[in-house]
């Protein structure tokens, strides 16, 4: 975008340079500011503010025109996200990772870790459902969301999108607790997952 040869010293105040700058714009010519030392705890806005103060008016115009050009290229190519920053690709990857489809996952845990109030060192294979259900949105979900946004449904607790939940459960799980008592827990581990 810019040449790498930027200098942060004031411009020379020769008569020819002041005439050239005054003829190109109606604003009075201002010397370049040296960059300010950014404090660690200063806000992002003040960091950008001090950065932009070190640019001349022509450089800011060049920056804005380059951003507008990138924006128009992104819109003409059908892009949904503006490729203004180099980290945009990693944002898309994180967004895709958040939208994994509903699936069955498993984890080996002790019975005590299940949070059911049993004290036991025995381990079980706990299967659970994880993921999103964006592809399973039905007309019901869209209508319910619309009714909630229009405040037609106010007090009821309703969910306006499908949720990744177990459709079936594994067999019952039996174990001995720390006091040698035998327990059986039903519907503990998922067998099949789906969007409900």
Radius of gyration: 31 Å
Q: What global shape is seen?
A: elongated
The total strand number stands at 6
Unreliable spans are 4-25, 37-41
CATH topology of the domain at 103-135 and 162-195: Cystine Knot Cytokines, subunit B
CATH top level label of the domain at 103-135 and 162-195: Mainly Beta
Largest sheet: 2 strands, antiparallel
| pLDDT averaged over residues | 75
N- and C-termini, Cα separation: 50 Å
How are the strands of the largest sheet arranged?
1-2
User: Structural class from helices and strands?
Assistant: alpha+beta
SSE string, helix = H, strand = E?
A: HHHHEEHEEEE
Tally of individual helices: 5
- CATH homologous group name of the domain at 103-135 and 162-195: Cystine-knot cytokines
Helix content: 25-40%
Kindly estimate the percentage of residues that lie in beta strands according to DSSP.
15-25%
Q: What is the CATH architecture annotation of the domain at 103-135 and 162-195?
A: Ribbon
Model description:
By secondary structure, this protein is of the alpha+beta class. Helix content is 32%, strand content 18%. The chain has a domain at 103-135 and 162-195: Ribbon (Cystine Knot Cytokines, subunit B), CATH 2.10.90. It has five helices and six strands. Strands 1-2 form a two-stranded antiparallel ribbon. The two termini are 50 Å apart. β4 (173-176) and β5 form a beta hairpin.
Question: How do the helices and strands line up, and which of them pair or pack?
Answer:
Layout: H1 15-24, H2 44-53, H3 57-76, H4 88-98, E1 103-110, E2 123-130, H5 139-149, E3 164-169, E4 173-176, E5 182-185, E6 190-195
Antiparallel strand pairs: 1-2, 3-6, 4-5
Pfam family, one: TGF_beta
Keywords: Disulfide bond, Growth factor, Secreted, Signal
GO cellular component, one term: extracellular region
């Amino acid at each position: 975008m810019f040449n790498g040869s930027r200098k942060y010293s004031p411009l020379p105040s020769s008569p020819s340079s002041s005439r050239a700058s005054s003829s190109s714009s109606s604003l009075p010519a201002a010397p370049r500011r040296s960059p300010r030392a950014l404090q660690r705890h200063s806000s992002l806005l003040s960091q950008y503010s001090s950065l932009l103060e070190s640019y001349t008016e022509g450089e800011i115009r060049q920056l804005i025109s380059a951003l507008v050009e990138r924006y128009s290229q992104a819109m003409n190519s059908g892009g949904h996200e503006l490729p203004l920053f180099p980290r945009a690709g990693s944002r898309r990857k994180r967004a895709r990772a958040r939208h994994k489809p509903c699936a069955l996952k498993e984890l080996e845990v002790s019975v005590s870790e299940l949070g059911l109030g049993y004290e036991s060192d025995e381990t079980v294979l706990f299967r659970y459902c994880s993921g999103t259900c964006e592809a399973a949105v039905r007309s019901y979900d869209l209508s319910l969301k619309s009714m909630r946004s229009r405040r037609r449904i106010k007090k009821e607790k309703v969910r306006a999108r499908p949720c990744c939940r177990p459709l079936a459960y594994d067999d019952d799980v039996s174990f001995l607790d720390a006091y040698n008592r035998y327990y059986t827990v039903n519907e503990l581990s998922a067998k099949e997952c789906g969007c409900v």
